[in-house]
Write a structure and sequence with these properties.
Blueprint (H helix, E strand, L loop, with lengths): L2 H6 L7 E4 L3 E5 L7 E7 L11 H17 L8 E3 L15 E5 L14
Antiparallel strand pairs: 1-2, 2-3, 3-5, 4-5
The structure holds guanosine-5'-monophosphate and zinc ion (ZN).
The site of guanosine-5'-monophosphate has 14 residues, from strand 2.
């Protein structure tokens, strides 16, 4: 079972920001910015490349709720999903990074660790 599935089933602890029946938002263990939250579907999809669009519709709404809860919507934030080898994806369970709480730069490269 992948590490994010283990987070979903409680085997690995997490700092939850928001949760509903389908999605979970929790703090990244190694934050790249002041606010760094990961949003995942509870069901396992390897990446954005294979997720059904219907799931993404619900995820979009959920991400907006997380951004509201974190008070990021006024100042803005960055949303990233890495896909596959060239995308630098390390954990192969679809996740969106929400990065904010400070100016995160115009590009991603200097803020996201290797
Ligand atoms: P990726 O590079 O696949 O887009 O991002 C994976 C992210 O998962 C990284 O930012 C990494 O810090 C985070 N991460 C890896 N393992 C854990 C964990 O066990 N708990 C939490 N909260 N984050 C994790
Ligand atoms: Zn998984």
């Amino acid at each position: 079972m992948c590490i994010f599935c283990k987070i979903v089933n409680g085997e690995i602890p997490n700092k939850t920001i928001l949760e509903d029946e389908k999605f979970l938002a929790f703090e990244d263990i190694s934050p790249a910015t002041k606010v760094h939250v990961l949003v995942i579907p509870k069901d396992h999809y390897t990446s954005f490349d294979v997720v059904p669009p219907k799931i993404m519709a619900g995820m979009t709404e959920f991400i907006q709720k997380v951004a509201s809860k974190l008070n990021l919507r006024e100042d803005g934030y960055r949303l990233i999903t890495n896909i596959g080898e060239h995308g630098g994806q390390v954990v192969h369970h679809l996740h969106f990074h929400i990065l904010g709480g400070e100016y995160v730069g115009r590009l991603v490269g200097d803020k996201i660790k290797e």
